[in-house]
Amino acid sequence: MLQALVISNNIFGIEGYYQSNTVIQYHFYKVTKNFQPNLQAYDVLVVPNGCDNVAMLTIKDDVQTFLNSGKALICCDGWFTNWVPGNQWRMDISKKTIDVRYFVKDDPYQLFNDLDVNEFIFSNGMSGYWACGYIDAAAGAHVVLEDTWQRPIIVVDDVTTNGIMFLTASGPLGDINKPYNECNSIDKLYKNFINKLTTIKNLQHA
What we know:
InterPro entries: Class_I_gatase-like. The chain has helices at 53-58, 60-68, 118-121, 185-197, and strands at 2-8, 24-30, 44-47, 72-75, 88-90, 102-104, 122-123, 126-127, 134-136, 142-147, 152-157, 164-168. The protein is of the alpha/beta class and 206 residues long. Helix content is 16%, strand content 25%.
């Protein structure tokens, strides 16, 4: 079973969005003035939407070490500080949300195989609701999903470090306790990535 540390955004009910199951067990760590989580005790580091990116910058070197040991990072936040190795989120409100469309580009882990990309684009007929800005992706990283202007929206980076990073341009994801066939495509995407992690040898937790 994978062991994951979720950096709590201190929003009420966050535990309900990351529910332990037979594949992965979640542990939560709140940001305080003495913020110093022991990352090496876990296989996966999860940074949800709305996290304290100033605090994350203070453990930038720890995140790098964690990933270099072959572990996994899931970041679903708009990280405005430079703590994610090789990749940077960029805020951009210059584009009209009515023009936002997403396209699967490079998906070697087949995360979108059974998903409907329209569920990431539209909510009640309105487009551009899910993500915000874009990712300045590392050279060689997989741009899984791009937008109308060919900007990276979802990136899987398995080249910058010895580990693997799953990054969204502030598009929230979670692990909901619901059967897979009852999930929407956004929830399925997260589950698909977690299931892929179980096949990576370095992440086989004893």
